[in-house]
Amino acid sequence: MQIYMQITPQDDKPPRFYHLFVQQDLLDGWTMVREWGYQGYAGKVKHEHHESFEEAVESMMRCRETQVSRGYRVVFIRGEESPA
Length: 84
Description:
This protein is α+β, with helices and mostly antiparallel strands. The protein has one domain (2-78): q64v53_bacfr protein fold (Single Sheet), CATH 2.20.140. The protein has 1 helix and 5 strands. Strands 4-3-2-1-5 form a 5-stranded antiparallel beta sheet, covered by helices on one side.
């Protein structure tokens, strides 16, 4: 599952992005990955390990709400609410 958000560009700067996604790891857990920065440039990345898919998605949704409150808007959400 992934969520991509952007904030409107200000001045001559490119738009800022925030990308969240959940992926299964090799240790029978799930990782929620955050990537953020300016569109077209290398951003910062942070990984959070979670024991279950549900915990990882809950963390991703909390992060999404925080970023929306800071002015980001959701461009797209892709994926399923539960693993196949």
